[in-house]
Specification:
Blueprint (H helix, E strand, L loop, with lengths): L5 E9 L6 H9 L6 E2 L12 E2 L13 H4 L4 H17 L11 E6 L5 H12 L11 H5 L3 H10 L5 E4 L5 H14 L5 E8 L4 H9 L29 E9 H6 L6 E10 L12 H14 L8 E3 L8 H13 L7 E3 L2 H4 L6 H15 L1 E2 L24 E2 L4 E8 L3 E8 L2
Parallel strand pairs: 4-5, 4-6, 9-10, 9-13
Antiparallel strand pairs: 1-7, 1-8, 2-3, 6-7, 8-14, 11-12, 13-14
């Protein structure tokens, strides 16, 4: 069958460096760190006492207080980012065929704060199960897509993908496939996470996965630096409106970029560690390039998974060199997690938004906090260290990899 073209007609962002798309882009462009001491709980006795939290965010500014109480924070973030993207797309809601609008979202964990709060409350009681009636609908991961659908009356496919830190990229690719095969005309997609909680921070530090640079949080997320010591957890959401090209053109929509390919793979190696040779990452990028029907040398910018972990960073760069060959040294590469921290299941969404904005503005966001590049990382690679730069970007690729060996890659093109 002939596949339809899919374009991006709306963007939304709620991030540790900006609560709107424009604020987020300003933060990216200027190399702002979103990291600081944890305020959401008393972290004094934790090995890691900092995170990339949202700043000056009040949910009641966006969602009716009664409705907000029925949502875990990860769902609140999803709704806020989706609302911005939907408004940005500027639909005529009266004429939009809502039966052909889907909501496909990503979250790696879902309502962890809700689960945590209920169990703490139960544990402090006399053993009587006094459970909030909204406990289950707040906790389950698909509540995010469900709430977006209910809020807007979108009756197309509606679900959440769960594949750890590749969840949002998986959601974006699923949305892409539904549209290009003609099943729907429009899809709200992206991802969200709210992991700055006792259980999450405690669990990741127990794994020795997170940075413990408590004396200098602003520089703790330092992908590719020789002294990196783990990732920094972040919270928030990113949203994209994907739309069939002719449908968008017919209504005179603003078009940011075209989504041209998506790739998947599995490391089939380890429950948390990436393949040491980056083989899964390589397969995911190859699959995406083949799906997009483009040559490796057509890619201008790669937004890496780049989490600031000792093991993960070198394997991804090795995979990029193996995938792109000599062209790897001509591309711009950066990790925006150096600024936002790692939004886990929401990471791919905010990074897809960053990739689209990089195309729109013809500007590469930096990898901040690179003080001494790791000598094990190919020195010929342009990591856009510390300062962003203007350059020609026709095609941008964004990677997302997750615990369990899940890999997903998306590719956007200027239109």
């Amino acid at each position: 069958m002939e596949l339809k073209r899919v374009v991006v007609t709306g963007l939304g962002a709620l991030t540790p460096i900006g609560n709107t798309v424009s604020e987020y882009w300003d933060g990216l462009k200027n190399g702002v760190s979103g990291c600081g001491p944890i305020t959401k709980f008393d972290a004094e006795k934790f090995r890691t006492r900092f995170a990339c939290e949202l700043k000056n965010f009040k949910v009641e500014d966006f969602i009716n207080a009664k409705e907000a109480r029925k949502m875990d924070p990860f769902t609140q973030y999803a709704v806020v980012a989706a609302d911005e993207a939907i408004a940005d797309a500027n639909f005529d809601m009266d004429s939009l065929n809502k039966n052909k609008v889907g909501v496909i979202w990503g979250s790696g964990i879902g309502g962890l704060k809700t689960f945590e709060d209920e169990m703490i409350y139960f544990g402090q009681g006399d053993g009587t199960p006094k459970i909030n009636p909204f406990f289950i609908p707040k906790m389950i991961a698909d509540s995010s897509s469900g709430q977006i659908s209910i809020r807007n009356g979108f009756r197309g496919p509606n679900y959440v993908t769960v594949s750890a830190c590749s969840s949002a990229n998986n959601a974006i690719i699923d949305a892409f496939n539904y549209i290009r095969t003609g099943r729907i005309n429009v899809c709200v997609t992206g991802g969200s996470e709210a992991p700055v909680t006792i259980a999450s921070v405690g669990g990741f530090t127990a794994m020795h996965a997170m940075s413990t640079r408590n004396d200098d949080p602003a520089t703790a997320s330092r992908p590719y630096d020789v002294d990196r010591d783990g990732f920094v957890v972040g919270e928030g959401a990113g949203a994209l409106i994907l739309e069939e090209y002719e449908h968008a053109k017919a209504r005179g929509a603003k078009i940011y970029a075209e989504l041209i390919g998506g790739g998947f793979s599995s490391d089939a190696h380890h429950i948390t560690a990436p393949h040491p040779e980056g083989y899964g990452a390589l397969l995911s990028m190859i699959d995406a390039l083949e799906d997009a029907n483009i040559k490796p040398e057509e890619v201008d910018y790669v937004n890496t998974h780049g989490t600031s972990t000792p093991i993960g960073d070198p394997q991804e760069i090795k995979a990029i060199v193996d995938c792109f060959g000599e062209h790897a040294y001509k591309m711009a590469i950066s990790s925006t997690k150096s600024m936002t921290g790692h939004l886990l299941g929401g990471a791919g969404a905010v990074e897809a938004v960053a990739s689209v904005l990089a195309i729109q503005h013809q500007f590469v966001p930096p990898t901040i906090n690179v003080f001494n590049r790791d000598p094990e990382i190919d020195q010929r690679i342009d990591l856009t260290e510390n300062v962003g730069k203007a350059r020609k970007i026709d095609v941008a690729l964004s990677n997302g990899f997750g615990f369990g060996g899940h890999n997903a890659t998306v590719i956007f093109r200027k239109i």
